[in-house]
Design a protein that fits this description.
The protein is α/β, with parallel strands linked by helices and 313 residues long. The protein has 12 helices and 8 strands. It has 2 domains: 157 residues, 3-Layer(aba) Sandwich (Rossmann fold); 137 residues, Rossmann fold. The strands form 2 sheets. A 4-stranded parallel β-sheet has the order 2-1-3-4, sandwiched between helices. The protein has a 4-stranded parallel β-sheet with strand order 6-5-7-8, with helices on both faces.
């Protein structure tokens, strides 16, 4: 019997601190990182005890498979990393070996930019070519930032996150809805992607019941490349919010779906230190990880595109 396969794809992470030069070179398109950059990222990963991203993505895959099986869908779910093992090719090979005639690829980012994320499509094309006649039909799910279950899940995390702030601040504390920063030269080519991010922020804020004056869309995790990056960064907003009389702030990523470096270091350590330096109480929403409502969203995405002819070629 032909099964439905689902392949959850994301960046990956270094195996350990010794793997950092290879990983950073892969992320940078083969350009060797400077020693000081390697040392800085080794410091960051050491502080968070290593990235849990691959383990969490595997847990998401297991939860999604069980969710699909509970719906009487004969399915197998695997993971594929773009810059580390297990690779996209390895994940697709496992699904082919498990008699999956159709595979739905889901990029673990709700918003999609072909310029920024087209590498997943190319990896799928290369993996199918490697499998040859044994390759299953592969369809890549399009951007899913409008998925109701995803938006509701993030909004619930926002409401729960506000409960972590001091009781007298919960009703007025600003919420920073963040996305991974981009070099300005890239952003100038990606107006559709920027609009997807802003629409996501508006939808989450609305579902969380936030008035327009309480939330701000901003950027985080600016890279180490030269040139201008997107503004405002959350570091720019914190002093302004404190000067306006706010004493608490909630950080809420709208793009990251699991705990990893950009959450555990950039927000939990970097943003928290900046908020405290500005004299503000700080909280972050819990990541979606294996939240049942989020797993339901992934199931709906896989099933919605099962019959579509979005072929990764």
């Amino acid at each position: 019997m032909s099964r439905l396969g689902v392949l959850l794809m994301t960046y990956g992470s270094p195996t350990d601190l010794d793997d950092m030069p290879r990983y950073l070179a892969a992320v940078r398109g083969g350009r060797e990182p400077a020693p000081e950059l390697v040392n800085e990222f080794r410091r960051r990963y050491a502080l968070i005890g290593g990235s849990p991203l691959i383990a969490i993505t595997r847990a998401q895959a297991q939860a999604l498979e069980q969710r699909l099986l509970s719906e009487r869908v004969e399915a197998r779910v695997e993971i594929g990393m773009r810059f580390s093992q297990p690779s996209v090719a390895a994940g697709l090979r496992r699904l082919a070996d498990d008699a999956c005639g159709l595979v739905i690829g889901i990029v673990m980012s709700p918003q999609h930019s072909e310029l920024l994320m087209g590498g997943y499509r190319r990896a799928l094309v290369a993996a199918r070519a490697e499998l040859g006649a044994a390759a299953p039909d592969v369809r890549l799910a399009p951007a899913w930032y409008r998925n109701d279950q995803f938006l509701d899940a993030v909004a619930l995390r926002v409401r729960d996150g506000l409960e972590r702030l001091p009781a007298d601040e919960r009703g007025r504390a600003p919420v920073l809805l963040t996305a991974h920063s981009l070099p300005r030269r890239v952003a100038d080519q990606e107006s559709d992607y920027l609009e997807q991010l802003r629409e996501t922020a508006e939808a989450v804020a609305g579902r969380a019941g936030l008035s327009r004056d309480r939330w701000h869309f901003c950027w985080q995790s600016a890279g180490h490349e030269p040139g201008e990056w997107m503004k405002p960064d959350f570091a720019d907003l914190l002093p302004e919010l404190r000067a306006a009389g706010h004493r608490s702030v909630l950080a809420a990523p709208i793009q990251f779906l699991a705990d990893h470096l950009e959450v555990l270091y950039d927000i939990d350590i970097g943003a928290r230190e900046q908020a405290q330096a500005a004299g503000m109480a700080f909280a972050r929403i819990e990541s979606l990880n294996t939240m049942p409502a989020f797993i339901n969203a992934l199931a709906s995405i896989a099933l919605a595109h099962e019959a579509q002819s979005v072929v990764a070629t």
